[in-house]
Amino acid sequence: MKKVTIIGVGNLGKSILSGLAASDIIDASDITAVDKSKYNLKEVEEKLNISISQDIITSIKGVKWIILCVQPRQLDLVLEEIKDKLTSDQILISTVTGTSIAEINEVVPDNKVVRVMPNTGASKKLSMTCIAANEDVKEELKFVEEMFDTIGRTLIIEERLMQAATVLGASGIAFFLRFLRAMIQGGIQMGFHPHEAQIIAVQTAIGAATLVAKNGTHPEREIDKVTTPQGCTIEGLNEMEHQGLSSSVIKGVMASYEKINTIK
Ligand SMILES: NC(=O)c1ccc[n+]([C@@H]2O[C@H](COP(=O)([O-])OP(=O)(O)OC[C@H]3O[C@@H](n4cnc5c(N)ncnc54)[C@H](OP(=O)(O)O)[C@@H]3O)[C@@H](O)[C@H]2O)c1
């Protein structure tokens, strides 16, 4: 039984759907997308050839995997709506930030729950998805891992690290993109047209990340390879550090982490 229903087809839901629908482990015809917005649903139906519905109750019937992809403040309503309709063999996969497995199980005590924290790289099969579950969820965890492997890379973590995973992996997309934007702005100031600066900065970012990913090296090792003594790279790097680059990134990450711990 591999049927999947995803509740909430917003930014993340669309990204997960486009990865899953193109994967080998689930047929697009076994996927149903549920959302309040007809516009969101039409978009995924046309692009991905999956079933769509605005009715949660009918769309979870006979489905093994239910992916919850709504905002934290919307989760309670969704759980209240489905709790009496669920059968105990159905597995809930929650992408929702800041709501623990125990909190979900307070409302739906008979269902196994897996928490996942993907990112919007999912739409290009480049998500980083952290996954956490309780000890009793072993077999199911394997399939959830397989499911999210189809949209990028996965890592099983302890649930206590889920907030940190959200900051580093999900908000991390925004953090890296802000750095990318700054590089593009620097490129424009040196004389490139914006689209040229973007091509150069994006490809360089892909190259830099791929070097670390494929070589398994620490970033500083790859930095050393392009840093000639007394050259222009070290001049730029040191100026960035004098201006507080590493410190402001770490402080930003920690501010985000402090904030996430207050969100419910
Ligand atoms: N965006 C990310 O990169 C990211 C990464 C990791 C985790 N997350 C988590 O993933 C969850 C979804 O985030 P998102 O950015 O995709 O949010 P989003 O863009 O707001 O999408 C949520 C969607 O769910 C719909 N919805 C809400 N209540 C519903 C209901 N009762 N029945 C059917 N549809 C309903 C919303 O419709 P309306 O707009 O009409 O309410 C909206 O289209 C959040 O909990 C977030 O913390 C997000």
* Name given to the CATH homologous superfamily of the largest domain: NAD(P)-binding Rossmann-like Domain
Count of the domains: 2
In terms of DSSP E residues, the strand content is 5-15%
Please summarize the sheet with the most strands.
Answer: 8 strands, mixed
Query: What's the level 1 CATH class of the largest domain?
Result: Alpha Beta
State the separation between the terminal residues, measured CA to CA.
Answer: 33 Å
Helical proportion, percent range:
40-55%
Bound molecules: NADP nicotinamide-adenine-dinucleotide phosphate
Q: Could you say what the CATH topology of the largest domain is called?
A: Rossmann fold
Architecture per CATH nomenclature, i.e. the level-2 architecture of the largest domain: 3-Layer(aba) Sandwich
Task: Enumerate the spans where pLDDT stays under 50 for 5 or more consecutive residues.
Answer: none
Mean pLDDT: 95
By DSSP (H or I, 4+ residues per run), the number of helices equals 11
* Major sheet strand order: 3-2-1-4-5-6-7-8
- Assign an overall shape: elongated
Number of strands: 8
Rg result: 21 Å
Give the topology string: H per helix, E per strand. Answer: EHEHEHEHEHEEHEHHHHH
- Which structural class fits the helix and strand makeup? alpha/beta
